Amino acid sequence: MFRMAFLKTLLFLSIFSLLFTTITLEVQASPPSNMVKTEYNSESVIQSQDKSSKSNLQQNSSNKLKKKSKTTLSELHQKYPGTMVLKGPKNQRIALTFDDVPDPRFTPAILDILSKYHVPATFFIGGKRAKDYPELTRRIHREGHAIGNHSYDHPLFTKITLAQFQSQILTTEQIIYDTVGVRPSLIRPPYGEISEAQLKWAKQQGYKIVNWNVDSLDWKGIGKEEVKKNVLSHVGPGSIILFHAGGGIGSDLTGTIQALPVIIETLRNKGYTFVTVPMLIQTSETKK
Ligand SMILES: [Zn+2]
């Protein structure tokens, strides 16, 4: 009898303690919401949980912010792979591209070198520049180079409206068409920047946005050796290389002009062939 009673008590005690533990755990696991706010007397566990969830939130939102401002272009590139182009297929072909043309100070010397080496390149023309220098624009086209649209007066696209962007593209396109009879299918945004709405419109209209995967950084006015190094240390199959053949007041592209023959010879010796961007990515120079 005594043993029976003892067992019963033990059973009762263990059930009770189990129940108690469960209740305690439940209380700890889900503190009432006001407990978090009036946390002065609460347990440190709750405080630290609250802290960590706060900092997680902060971290998440700062990651989102970082992501948004930092990877916009690569996100766009991933989202619109056929429209936003950074390079061509990985074969032995590469494309030299020249921005901010025409510019009578530098473009003729660049054209002379390309002509001497029989290298076709791609020139991204500014509408205002083409209007100011139609003969130099015609020379670029006449010598077999491809032509792309580099906006009318070089604004940062992400700072202008969709309507302003459309006007920049269409005005330039008309000037280029009136000068050389080409309606460029390729757009190179100044500074390589473009918004998603602008990209969407460009896609609907059948344009391609052409950036680059090798940057000579020649706009900085650096010397021959630096231009050479910036290009040759990053170039590979299918590369689209960014140079300038024009610039603003005080620009100096002597480094580009001096480095270009060496770059062409070096890359030819490595087995590369130079093609225009439309050839590289197998698209038409002219809008359909
Ligand atoms: Zn530019």
TrEMBL record:
SUPFAM superfamilies per UniProt: Glycoside hydrolase/deacetylase
Gene3D superfamilies: Glycoside hydrolase/deacetylase
Pfam families: Polysacc_deac_1 (PF01522)
CDD domains, A to Z: CE4_NodB_like_6s_7s
Keywords: Hydrolase, Metal-binding, Signal
Domain spans labelled NodB homology: 92-275
Keyword Metal-binding annotated: yes
Annotated Gene Ontology cellular component terms: membrane
Region of interest (Disordered), ranges: 46-72
InterPro entries xref list: Glyco_hydro/deAcase_b/a-brl, NODB_dom, Polysacc_deacetylase_ArnD
MF GO annotations: hydrolase activity, acting on carbon-nitrogen (but not peptide) bonds; metal ion binding
UniProt-listed GO biological process terms: carbohydrate metabolic process
Protein known as: Chitooligosaccharide deacetylase
Organism of derivation: Paenibacillus crassostreae
